[in-house]
Structures are given as structure tokens and as C-alpha cells.
Specification:
Number of strands: 2
Order of helices and strands: EEHHHHHHHH
Distance between the termini: 51 Å
Shape: elongated
Number of helices: 8
Number of domains: 2
């Protein structure tokens, strides 16, 4: 794929040979590897030290974002994170971390005012962020159906954490405009099991 290294590995996804470097750096991220790919299986069973260190840093960063969250808040955090990981922006407009920052901030403000009994829809300035917020809001609302102001407060807390995390990760990696999205991809791609749904979309258990 790179046109530099010699292609020696048979890629079952692409139906052609690729080099070891492209196989190692593009698998799952750019190449939709089948679950029975021997190179993917070997990498998961025996990840290199650099991958283990990256995984540890990713998990620590995500754990820091979830510090002191309740069980319901943690469930909502993962629901939103998985939505962000899978979100496909319309018209092929790429989503970047700052869009997540703006969308999360706007939605947090919306849920905060709703918890106080005031209905006001905060909107991000950027078009991509506004589209993301528009797509994400009904997912959160469905998750907290009948949860009332208690759920709205939880949603605001979680969204502020995501805003903070995306902002910090983006600032730490100025050359990568999708550093936070990449982190979510690395952490969540290993656990892409079926969502917990009832046929009408994802929902959390709200006591």
C-alpha cells in the first residue's frame, strides 16, 4: 500500500499482498480486517511493547476522564464515546476533536438548563459541531427517557467530562486534529459487541 516496503503478506481483506509495516499500522484503522485474519489474531495475542504502552496510556487517559463518575454516568460516558467512534459526518465532512469539544459543551449547557426547568437549546458555532450535537442529542434523550432532571444533571456532567478530555487530548497533540477520536478508536475497537438495545435504539437503565 505504501509503495516503499516489499509486499510479503497476503491480506484477506484487500485480496492482495501488503508489506508488514502497512499491515501493522493500518489494520482495523484503515483496513477492515476479518476476525479470522492470522496477522490480526497474532497481534492481539502478542502485541508489541510499544502497542502495550500506547494501550496503557489510552486507558489511563480514559480512566482520568471517568474519575468519580457514578455507574449510570459511566454507562452514559461509554454510550456517547461509542457514538462518537462510529459517527459518520454527512457530506464527507471530516470530524475533528474541536467539533467534539463544541458539541459536548453546547449539549452540556442544554441539559444543565433543562435540569433547572428551563428549555433552551444551546447550539455550537461550527457547522460540523452543530450537526454532531443534533445527531447525538436524541441518542442521549432516549437513553435517559423518563429519567427527569436527575438524568439531565448526569448527562451534563458526562458531557463536560468529554468536553474536557477532548480539549486536553487535542492540546497535547496539536499536529493531530483527531487525537481524541483516535484514542476512542483504539480503546473501543476491541470491544465492538452488540449494543444493548430494546429495538428502539440504545437505552440505559434509569432507576
Amino acid at each position: 500500500m505504501c509503495g516503499i516496503q516489499r509486499a510479503r503478506r497476503d491480506c484477506p481483506s484487500l485480496g492482495q499482498q501488503i508489506c508488514a509495516v502497512c499491515c501493522g499500522t493500518k489494520r482495523v484503522v484503515q483496513i477492515p480486517c476479518p476476525s479470522d485474519c492470522p496477522y490480526l489474531s497474532a497481534a492481539r495475542e502478542h502485541p508489541p511493547a510499544i502497542a502495550l504502552r500506547q494501550q496503557q496510556r489510552d486507558v489511563e487517559a480514559l480512566a482520568q476522564s471517568m474519575r468519580d463518575l457514578s455507574e449510570r454516568q459511566a454507562q452514559l460516558f461509554f454510550l456517547i464515546s461509542r457514538f462518537l467512534q462510529r459517527y459518520e459526518p454527512p457530506e464527507l465532512q471530516p470530524l475533528v476533536d474541536l467539533d467534539i469539544v463544541e458539541a459536548a459543551a453546547a449539549l452540556a449547557g442544554t441539559f444543565q438548563t433543562a435540569a433547572r426547568g428551563v428549555i433552551y437549546d444551546h447550539r455550537p458555532a461550527a457547522l460540523a459541531a452543530d450537526r454532531l450535537a443534533t445527531a447525538l442529542k436524541p441518542v442521549i434523550a432516549e437513553a435517559g427517557k423518563h429519567g427527569g432532571s436527575a438524568f439531565e444533571r448526569d448527562a451534563a456532567v458526562v458531557l463536560r467530562r468529554i468536553e474536557e478530555a477532548a480539549r486536553e487530548i487535542a492540546a497535547a497533540h496539536p499536529s493531530n486534529r483527531r487525537a481524541y477520536l483516535d484514542l476512542l478508536g483504539r480503546v473501543l475497537r476491541e470491544n465492538n459487541g452488540p449494543d444493548q438495545t430494546d429495538g428502539n435504539g440504545p437505552r440505559l437503565i434509569v432507576p
